[in-house]
User: Fold this.
Amino acid sequence: MPNSRENMRVMKIFALIILILGLTSCNGTFWGTSYAIMNCSQFVCAYTHHQPATVRQLFDEGRPQHGPLHAGDIVVFGGRHAAVFDGEGLLDSIPERGVGRVEKLNPRDPWYSGPIKVVTFVHKPSPWQ
Assistant:
């Protein structure tokens, strides 16, 4: 059974493969990349240059938000889903559409329910912005 160190290595390799394959569109974003290729935690980590992490790890790292979001902040919903604030709204990756903009938050939707924590943006800006 793989350990967490092996999982992190695989996630880093996967992120590198995505960058090498150029899974970005002509406007420089991951827009439309399939969830099967890049799930929510992989997307937010790549977008913000955060070290590869699972949603649960991001949730454990996050803090309750007591102020406005800033571009690059990672929002983690109930330890089950993650999105990134781009200054205008939330971007995430879900099975129904892959990477894209969150149009409307429904608190009854399991993706966006539960306690919310924020991993404050402290990394350099993403080159994909």
